[in-house]
Amino acid sequence: MPINIPKDLPAGEILSEENIFTMDEERAKTQDIRPLNILILNLMPEKERTETQLLRLLSNSPLQVNVEFLHTATYESKNVSKSHLQQFYKSFKDIKHQRFDGMIVTGAPIEQLPFEEVVYWEELTEIMEWTKDHVTSVMHICWGAQAALYHHYGIGKYELPQKLTGVFKHRLLQNNIKLARGSDDEFVVPHSRYTSVCEEEILAHDDLILLSSSEEAGPCTILSKDQKHVMITGHIEYDAETLGDEYHRDTNRGLEPHVPVDYFPDNDPEKKPLNRWRSHAYLMFYNWLNYYVYQETPFSWK
Fold this sequence. Notes:
By secondary structure, the chain is α/β, with parallel strands linked by helices. Helices cover about 30% and strands about 25% of the residues. The chain is built from ten helices and twelve strands.
């Protein structure tokens, strides 16, 4: 089945070239089925790139998915045009009266700031509170995962000695959880962040399940026992080139970044990296959509 996206969204052309089945809003209105309505709060600076990455992963399902994009009203991104935001995004006041089957909260390059010092923190906490009654299940990615752990479960973050960047091996710690159904016992996930969360605090929390972890990168996939929240501290949505683009960007800025771990072939930044986490990413999104969104949402919201 297709993923329903706004007409003329730039990601649509890219996905079409990849032979991914998309459908614009006009055609979707003729489909006599109950689609899933997914809201994406996109906090990443390169919004168009993140749109494509997430839509690609949401497309691998027999379910029709309607997508709406949300941006913060209290902070305006400097890396995307105003016309793009006006055409394809809504603010919280525009959608707060609606209910959604699922929601994705992306990462943001602000993890070194205390949560309360983030410009849009108050707005984000209002949105996170709103999800309790208006969204069936929420997937939080990277900083979004840290924000959810802090707001919903009181688990803070701590700063790492240096930026954690690279592709790291992870172990599946629970094999009877639907989110991991079909997963390998070991898989790789990209990470790109300056902070982490304490594994012991997650394990000690009565409302949380630690699904996967890495010796080098720490906790990765955390699930609330009520299935309301899926928190992924890595970037399973990243393209093969994303970590490399971040590395070269920082190098050009004179920041002398560390080469991402186990990412470039032969550890050579001039060689093209391979995507070794694609299958795991598709599986996580498919299982989330099926077991935590589709299977749990009433056919008709009251």
